[in-house]
Design a protein that fits this description.
490 residues, BirA Bifunctional Protein, domain 2
Length: 490
């Protein structure tokens, strides 16, 4: 046992002794309902109106200091902290003994008058205190350093207590999602829920998690995307739908990836990817302004400007700008393979031109995209659910949004031709048979739905966690997911 662990155990032993002392005094250390009429920040903001008024507050004790027959403490609630002033002559012997037994982390109910100390600090002159929960574990004094970062994620409840800026991130996360809903609801979109357990993992190129339903004796997949179910609703006549919910992808963990993450997907009948491009730009910039009261945010040393219009480039234009390779002049697979090798990339002999375009973009272009940028015109090989471009059928009417080297959104004019869709599924099935575990499965029911007729439509997916990372200035996805997936403790 380390010295730190031994010290924590000793502190916990003392707290357990105090717990028993409270019970011996006839006090329940884990109290019940407590009615409060104010919160910390409200008292500070409205001091002129509340001075000398009686208030009741509740929260966690974050500091304590005694001076003979008087003492101070700071109590913390969701809004912030306010100082408490305890005086033996006002409280009486028994209540002042309770104050003396307080530990940092204890949760109390407080009644008292609002006043300002001689040093000018807004405080509550305590007249009564009620134990609501005795903290048996001591709060950490400092949470910093690489080792403690891991501990913060594992014990997020403690992280939220001792690091106010962490609480602010998750409050802002809630506001961002609320404003997204408001934006879409106000424009006539209907929020829906689709299955998270699916018989076929569809809607994206990703490796799924597999579970088993005992009663039906069948495997099910945790969804990698809600897309195919949402488009079934477009077929059914729900013309503008969206869903904000969890997706699950059996992939690695990094600062940009968590296997369980939140997505927004939107589908609009009679629209196309141009409509979704305008929607994306307006939605994100509007939410940014509402939540941050600004169109710019500092992120990893860059000032990111969300003011429309955002830069727009085709994938081929971006590759030419950042690598010099012009795929308008490279028209077959062999020439594309040669171009990739000249960039120092390893490619197989069966890689297609479209696949190589995507690989070059991912390896040499994504890292250059800092400000909000639309990249459109993706190869059909990597876009099995997108409509072909009428003038260049080897490309699709699809776009992605990149901000700070991260893909934030993906959208396209939806493929509504059931014959074309079936052929693309069959090609994906071939890839899957060849060992590509992320290739799309055949979904006969989705083909059947398309055969009833799906109107032209635009679809959009936005990675909520990545968007929140940028809007809050957080470099790791774990800092915006309240309970991120972690490796087991060694």
């Amino acid at each position: 046992m380390s010295g730190q662990e031994q010290n924590i155990n000793e502190l916990k032993k003392v707290r357990l002794e105090k717990l028993q002392e409270l019970r011996d005094m006839g006090i329940d250390p884990f109290g019940g309902r407590f009615e409060r009429n104010a919160v910390a920040q409200e008292i500070i903001d409205n001091f002129n109106e509340l001075e000398a008024q009686s208030v009741t507050v509740a929260g966690r004790i974050m500091s304590k200091r005694r001076h003979g027959k008087a003492g101070f403490a700071n109590i913390q609630d969701l809004s912030g902290q306010v100082q408490l002033y305890f005086r033996k002559d006002d409280l009486g012997e028994e209540k002042y003994e309770l104050f003396k037994k307080l530990d940092m982390g204890d949760i109390l109910g407080i009644e008292g008058e609002v006043f300002r100390t001689q040093k000018g600090e807004i405080s509550i002159h305590v007249r009564n205190l009620t134990y609501l929960s005795k903290a048996l574990n001591p709060l950490p004094e400092k949470w910093h350093g690489l080792k403690d970062v891991e501990l913060r994620y594992r014990q997020r409840y403690v992280d939220l207590i001792v690091n106010p800026e962490v609480k602010e991130v998750f409050v802002k996360r809630s506001r961002i999602i609320k404003e997204i809903r408001n934006y879409l609801d106000n424009r006539g979109f209907l929020e829906v829920e689709t299955p998270m357990m699916q018989p076929i993992a569809g809607g994206a190129a990703a490796r799924p998690f597999i579970t088993h339903h005992n009663a039906l004796n069948m495997d099910l997949y945790l969804r990698i995307a809600p897309e195919l179910y949402l488009k079934r609703l477009i077929v059914g006549g729900l013309e503008k739908v969206y869903e904000i919910n969890r997706n699950f992808r059996n992939e690695g963990i990094s600062t940009k990836h968590n296997p369980e993450f939140t997505m927004l997907e939107i589908y609009q009948a009679y629209a196309d990817f141009h409509v979704m491009m305008q929607l994306t730009e307006d939605l994100i910039s509007s939410v940014m302004l509402k939540v941050n009261n600004s169109m710019s945010v500092e992120f990893e040393g860059h000032s990111i400007n969300f003011m429309p219009p955002w830069k727009r480039m085709t994938m081929l234009e971006a590759i030419k700008e950042y690598t010099g390779v012009d795929f308008n002049q490279i028209l077959n697979d062999e020439a594309a393979q040669s171009a990739a090798r000249q960039l120092g990339m390893e490619v197989s002999g069966d890689s297609t031109r479209g696949e190589i375009i995507n690989e070059i973009f991912e390896e040499h272009v994504e890292e250059k995209l800092i400000q909000p940028t639309f990249i459109y015109g993706h190869p059909v090989e990597i876009s099995p659910l997108a409509k072909r471009n009428a003038e260049q059928p080897e490309l699709t009417d699809r776009f992605e949004v990149f901000i700070m080297q991260r893909e934030i959104a993906n959208a396209f004019s939806e493929l509504n031709d059931p014959l074309d869709q079936k052929q693309r599924f069959l090609k994906q099935v071939e890839k899957r048979a060849g060992g590509d575990s992320e290739a799309h499965m055949m979904d006969e029911d989705y083909i059947n739905a398309l055969e009833y007729g799906m109107p032209p439509a635009g679809g959009l997916g936005i990675g909520i966690d990545r968007l929140i990372m940028i809007m809050t200035g957080m470099s790791s996805i774990r800092d915006v997911i309240i309970f991120p997936t972690l490796r087991p403790k060694e």
